[in-house]
């Protein structure tokens, strides 16, 4: 019986080892209502939002979309590109799990976008429930 080396522990594991694909990719001209329907159909709580060149420009969550829909300024003309926030914090696939967890606690968030070298959101690190 062989024991696992200590470097395989959670301190050395990176985000790429544990991240969750962010969900379906949708266009930024999609309405909030349609995006919520896509989430329901896909049984996911988040979507990768893409521009016309299919480059990921952000990530939206169910909670964000519901907050927009329930807001006083909402109309059926609001589309995803209108509500995309700029993430103050994202992570790369090379970030350690511990480091990503610390960022999520600091942000009080259960989802952290994972971006590639071009700063394109392609996945999310999400806390399991």
From TrEMBL:
Domain CBS: 19-75
InterPro entries noted in UniProt: CBS_dom, CBS_dom_sf
PROSITE patterns: CBS
Domain of life: Bacteria
Alphabetized Gene3D superfamilies for the sequence: CBS-domain (3.10.580.10)
The entry's keywords: CBS domain
Name of this protein: CBS domain-containing protein
């Amino acid at each position: 019986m062989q024991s696992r080396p200590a470097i395989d522990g959670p301190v050395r594991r990176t985000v790429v080892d544990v991240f969750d694909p962010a969900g379906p990719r949708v266009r930024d001209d999609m309405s909030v209502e349609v995006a919520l329907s896509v989430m329901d159909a896909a049984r996911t709580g988040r979507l990768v939002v893409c521009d016309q060149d299919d480059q990921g420009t952000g990530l939206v969550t169910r909670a964000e979309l519901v907050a927009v829909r329930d807001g006083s300024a909402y109309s059926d003309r609001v589309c995803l590109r209108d509500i995309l926030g700029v993430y103050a914090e994202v992570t790369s696939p090379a970030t350690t799990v511990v480091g990503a967890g610390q960022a999520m606690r600091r942000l009080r968030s259960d989802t952290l976008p994972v971006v590639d070298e071009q700063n394109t959101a392609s996945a999310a690190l999400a806390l399991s429930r």
